Each structure stands twice: as C-alpha cells, then as structure tokens.
Amino acid sequence: xxxxxxxxxxxxxxxxxxxxxxxxxxxxxxxxxxxxxxxxxxxxxxxxxxxxxxxxxxxxxxxxxxxxxxxxxxxxxxxxxxxxxxxxxxxxxxxxxxxxxxxxxxxxxxxxxxxxxxxxxxxxxxxxxxxxxxxxxxxxxxxxxxxxxxxxxxxxxxxxxxxxxxxxxxxxxxxxxxxxxxxxxxxxxxxxxxxxxxxxxxxxxxxxxxxxxxxxxxxxxxxxxxxxxxxxxxxxxxxx
Length: 240
Ligand SMILES: [Zn+2]
Description:
- This protein has helices at residues 3-80, 87-170, 173-185, 208-216; strands at 191-195, 198-199, 221-222, 229-231.
- It has 240 residues and is mostly helical.
- It has two domains: 25-159, Helix Hairpins, CATH 1.10.287; 174-234, no CATH class.
- The two termini are 18 Å apart.
- Bound molecules: zinc ion (ZN).
- Residues 199, 201-202, 204, 223, 225-226, 228 line the site of zinc ion.
- Residues 199, 201-202, 204, 223, 225-226, 228 line the site of zinc ion (ZN).
C-alpha cells in the first residue's frame, strides 16, 4: 500500500486513541459535576426549609399576639360587666366575651399545629444538612481520586500525543491540513476502511470502479459521499 495511506491510517489510529482519553477525562469530570449538582440541590432544599421555618415562626408570633389580645379583651369586657345598666348592654358584652373565647381557642389550636410544622421543618432541614455534609465529604474524596485518575490519563495521553506529533510531521503539509479538517468535520473519523465496496464512515456504496482503485492502494481516494479518506485492507476470509 501507498506509504502516505499507511501514515494516514496510523495517524487516524492515534487520533482515535487520543479522543478516547478525552472521553475518559470527560466521564470522570461528569461524575464530579453530577455530585456537585446533587449538593447544590440539597443546599437549595435546606434554604427552602429555613425559609418555610421563618414563615411559620412569623405565623406563630401573629397567632400569639392575636391570642393575647383576645385574652385582654375578655378581661376588659368582664370588667365592664359590673358597670353596665341595661340587659342589652350586658348581652352585647357577653357576646363579645364569647367571640373572644372562641378566637382564643382557635389561635391555641393554630399554635399547636404551627409548633408541629416548625418542628417538622427543623427536622427536615437537619436531615438534609446531614445528607449534605456526607455528600460534601464524598465529593472531596471523589474529587481527589478523580484528579489522580485524570493526571494518569493525561500522562498516557501525553505520550500518545508525542507519537501523533511525530506522525503528523512525517505527512506532507497539505495532506495533513486536509486530514485535520476532515477529522474536525467528521467527528474524529477522517480515514476509514472500505468493506465490500461500502465506506465504513458513512456506510454508502462507492462506485465499483473507484472501489477497485481503492483496493489497489496506489493512490489516495475520498468517499464521494462523506469525503473521508478511504483505504482497503484485505480480510482473511476474502483471501483468494
Ligand atoms: Zn463515506
């Protein structure tokens, strides 16, 4: 096979390896951001719990004030009972006392349920805080582990990248330029095999005459559909 084609095949192999490293690093980083996201969600949930507790505390203070005010109104009306002359006035005071007693009972019930809700919100917040601190600890450990892994991957990547530099400089500049452009445009796959007349990049058929030329391997051919660089490798089963 043409030496240039061999060089291109080797370059493509190395680039696939490099892109594999990039993918590995990305996956590691995604693991971390997934954990970070879960932590962010917990932090927001805690803030929501705290806001809810604050709101409940305010409602509790309002209910306490209402309760106290109803209590003082009862005392006030009871004091006035001795001073009124007519039964009509007497009835009016009694009615007011009854209403305020009802209000007191209502606000007391409200207070009981508010206290329960406040406690519930506090429990919820502290449960979330426990989970959060566990997750933060785990994230710290995981980040350290991931950074170590990434360092290792980058070490391996570097030696492959050096190999790539060597292969790239061996190619003629215009050919390298075309290869690099294809690599970007065709998602990391610029040089592909042809199997039974089909381009393994886009899986479209190549005209039979061109496939024969590709088989000969004397000259570089591009897929008429995807423009990828084509090569032919004889399969063991195809050997005549
Ligand atoms: Zn193609």
